Amino acid sequence: MRYRVNHTTEYFYSDPVPLCHNIVHLTPRQTIRQSLVSHLTQVTPNPVMRNDRIDFFGNPVTWFSLQEPHESLKIAARSEVEVSAFIPPVGLWSPAWEQVARVLRERRDLEVLDAMQFAVNSPFVRAHAQLAEYAQPAFTPGRPLLECVTELTERIFKEFTFDGNATTIGTPVLEVLQHRHGVCQDFAHLQIGCLRSLGLAARYVSGYLVTRPPPGRPRLIGADRSHAWVSVYFPDFGWIDFDPTNGVIPSFGHITLAWAREYDDISPVRGVVVGGHRHSLAVSVDVEPLTGTPKILARV
Amino acid sequence: MTTTTTNEPLVAPRGFAAMYAARQSGRDEMLEPDGALRPHWGMLVSLLDDLGSEEVLRRWEQGRRIIRENGITHNVYGDPDGVDRPWNLDLVPLLLPASDWTGVSEGLVQRARLLDALLADLYGPLRSVKEGWLPPELVYANPGFLRPCHGIIPAHNRWLHLYSADLVRQVDGQFLVLNDRTQAPSGAGYSLENRIVLAGILPTAFRQCNVQRLAPFFITLRQTLRSLASPNRENPKVVLLTPGPYNETYFEHAYLARYLGYTLVHGNDLTVRDAMVFLKTINGLQRVDVILRRVDDDFCDPLELYPQSYLGVPGLVEAVREGNVAVANALGSGVVQAPAFLSFLPRLCRNLLNEDLKLPSVQTWWCGEPDSLCYVLENLSQLVIKPAFPARGSDPEFGEEMSQEQLAELAARIAARPGNFIAQEHVISRTAPVLMEDQAEARRFVVRAYAAADAQSYSVMSGALTRVTGSDDSLVVSMQRGGGSKDTWILSEGPVSETTLLSAGSLPPQLSRGGGEVTSRVADDLFWLGRYLQRFETDVRIARCLFARLMDQGRSDVAATVGVLARALFGYRGFVLNGNGLGDLVVEAFDSVGPGGIRPALRDVRTLMRGLRDRVSSDAWRILQEIERELEEFDPKIEDDQIGRVVELLNRITVDLLAFGGMVAESMTRGQAWRFLEIGSRVEHAIGIARLVRTTMVNCSEDESPMLEAVLDIADSSLTYRRRYLTQLDAAAVVDLIVADETNPRSVVFQLNALQDHLEDLPRDDIHPQHSPDIQTVLQLNTHLKIVDLRAISPPANRGGRPELEALMTQVIDSMADVSEWVSQIYFSHATSRPLQGRGAEEAAQ
């Protein structure tokens, strides 16, 4: 599938801002299943300083600063990406989850070392006995990891209520677990925390969903915003994505922007302004299919 | 004095040593286990004995006085009285022969090289992880591993510029490293200060013992930092970045900055433009080349590092990445000081340097390794347990002090997350004599040694900061726990070159330049210090006048005056003097938390003073502390007939305040910094008078003489008035004297004239002073006050209110607010940055 993504972020300030510095993760990264056809991040007013580079996790990142007084800031990212489908492997294939945890504990080849950085604690998402306990029913002894994570994804989807007002970006994972409300970031962090608590490697993926659902299918939650889900490491296979907000295994309906340990590593727009007292914010995301008809997403 | 005979008459203990012999531990620095004096202590001990114990105590007291007078302090966290605690220095230094120190120095140089190489690897190819020399958790789970700094190559590929290590000495004399410090090592400045104090009170001993000097170390550090600037910069600017006055070692930051000739800056003194760092000064932006930081690296840039930090400089990481500024130690250096690394250093040393580690660490186990975990769980009661990646305030836990239940609980915690813990052997360390009131006691000690990068490698300071435990049974050596410090003398065989001699106040000439410019933050703080001081004075004067009137309750006209004055002090609308009204009034006036009364202004003064430590003399500090003490000790719950005590207190404070203002102004050169203090004071003084007139004289009662009397008293103009008008009190005459009379130093116009002079002397970019908005505002107001007919707008009281007078006073207050705003905009530039979106306001990804 080929998509065009428009992601626009606009800030309006109560007073002119003399100086601001920003870091944005708005360029979709290239993956095994996703190629970037074209991309442009346009900033208004035009920044004096701008640098594009690759961050520690391999994501494209853009740094820019505005040094003249301005009353608004507009960051318009336009991308065209080609995403291919993902067919989940048959359940019998995947190794038992304890086996995967053992690989992460004991094997030290480059592939496992790379996965290790997503198995250990990060500042916001840390292993905890309560998280392990919540995940435990899905992780019965000897059960293939793919089945375990699929069931966990399904459970979070069923047992948690999507609620844009229940949490902020700073709500701790354990609080989300307790109240069972939140948004996609909360659910992704929660699931990552569960997996890390069991000694597994899981990373945070930020990206988009197709805005308009295929005919006859319900519109997915979070389709007009940036979205987030998780990715889990399977030794000698690679990473498989899971979307706990929608209870699905992402295929060609999910467009990947970046991945890292947690939200803070790759927040789409991060900035520091000097002055400006108050600001208001407007964000719009539009994902438009360019070719063909999207096939039905694989329901877990 | 007693004389003891032993087999070795040359080092026979007598005097000081004999007195200590009974107290010593049998594993002492000064005495052999059999009680004989170690030879290298002979000279010092015999000189101390020559002085005699009384003289020694006198000198020690002198040392403590110097420490108090120089304001040498450290702050203790979590203790409300812990801010600015006097530094604790023992009279007896720790003596180490050069022959003992040489091996330690070589070991420290090697460790510094090793950690520097390790940093280059972690922030580069990460071979130590990929090759398995280091468990990946030590890097990936380490909060000190700053991913945004990965791939940055610092100047000369040098990460570590200042390194320190805490050393303990085993009974057999071997030094062991307890921990490495690579983040922003503290204490080098205190060691220098210790040296200056001790060499001052024991000059003969210092000279005769051939003590090696500290200055070469600081000269090396200074040269290294300078060399980090890009070679095409002719006169590179180096600044010392401090987290501010609440940091435990803020005194040291200010002290080192002054000693090294660097500008002491806070994060918001700096700004990043064009990916370069600039210092905001009242003369404009000045390019910064090198930052010696005492802010932990993750707090250095809210944009790319810890977003909640207000101590850093937004955009700093990008400026470093572009090579436009060097930071020492490099951002990210803190990662390798985690104690978990200690057990891997021998292997890393062989792999990275192809050498064997010379200076061993205290035996350390990282519990993330299965074998280590087994050992630790089996031997828990003999070990010291620490977090693998310590957060501030995390304490070591001593197995030997624990009950069986506590050990079981600790074992369970470790078993649940083994990678989060390390264990260390509990070293039986040597002791050193510490002078207590009339005797010496044996205390354990830790030596903090320093190495500075030089052109090829590292140079070790010939000296150190030695810290001792606070009590004989304490297991932890920490200034935070009431421990003390010692100077550390490395003794040469022969005479030491005098060329590097340091004495109090005389610095090597090549170190003493710079540091003269006024940063915008300092100017801003001084401006507000001027304002708050003046505001406090006004409040005290109003309160004094108010309570003096209350003493005189027989007078029928008192109630009305008191009501209005109370309103001037608290902003009260309807104050009624009744039975318990007086008690409430006193409590309110001296309340330490409420918004009214005289304390809030004093609190603001104190907060500002802390950040101006290097600008305000210690004498001024003492006066301020005296005022605070008096207020603290005053019990506002008093009987009505004790009102005189309140007035006495306020009288004393008024006098103290005059002394304080004088002290602040006198200890400051008449440069631009002082000018901002003056400007603030003048602005606030004009506002104070205008408010007073507006509150007391606009709505007036039939007989307003008691009120006019109070106004003259508060405005400190009674004497002048009586000289001119004798006793007849007239509203227009009062207004003329305290508003428009340019010869009265307490009048509004006098403040405006002074203000105009100061503003005209401030630096301006190409703009004629008369055309700048701040000066124009003053000029307009001044002209208006001079031409307005005061008699017409201040009619006698029986003709009703005085709306024109009210309007005029409001104009004064508004104009002064405008001037304040203009000065802020031109010279301080609203310099506080904040996150573009707090976590709450962030576009919520759905």
Number of helices of chain A: 6
Q: Report the principal-axis shape of chain B.
A: elongated
Total beta-strand segments of chain A: 14
> Uncertain segments of chain A of ≥5 residues (pLDDT<50)?
294-300
Helix content of chain B: 40-55%
Whole-number radius of gyration of chain B?
32 Å
Counting copies of identical and different chains, the oligomeric state is: heterodimer
The sequence of SSEs of chain A as H and E is EEEEEEHHHHEHEHEEEEEE
Low-confidence segments of chain B = 1-12, 499-515, 572-577, 830-846
**Largest sheet, strands/sense/barrel of chain A:** 4 strands, antiparallel
Write down the overall geometry of chain A. globular
Alpha carbon gyration radius of chain A = 20 Å
Q: Explain this structure to me?
A:
The complex is a heterodimer of chains A (300) and B (846). Chain A is an alpha+beta fold. Chain A has helices at residues 97-106, 110-116, 129-135, 145-159, 173-179, 184-197; strands spanning 2-17, 19-24, 34-44, 49-54, 60-66, 70-83, 161-162, 181-182, 202-209, 227-234, 238-242, 254-260, 269-274, 279-289. In chain A, the strands form four sheets. In chain A, strands 3-6-1-14 form a four-stranded antiparallel sheet, with no helix packed on it. Chain A has a four-stranded antiparallel sheet with strand order 4-5-2-13, with no helix packed on it. The longest helix of chain A has 15 residues, at 145-159. The radius of gyration of chain A is 20 Å and the shape is globular. Chain A starts with a strand and ends in an 11-residue tail after the last strand. Chain B has 846 residues and is of the alpha+beta class. Chain B has 28 helices and 22 strands. The chains are: A alpha+beta (300), B alpha+beta (846). Chains A and B meet through strand 2, helix 2, strand 13 and strand 14 of A and strand 8 and strand 22 of B. Strand 13 of chain A pairs antiparallel with strand 22 of chain B, so a sheet runs across the interface.
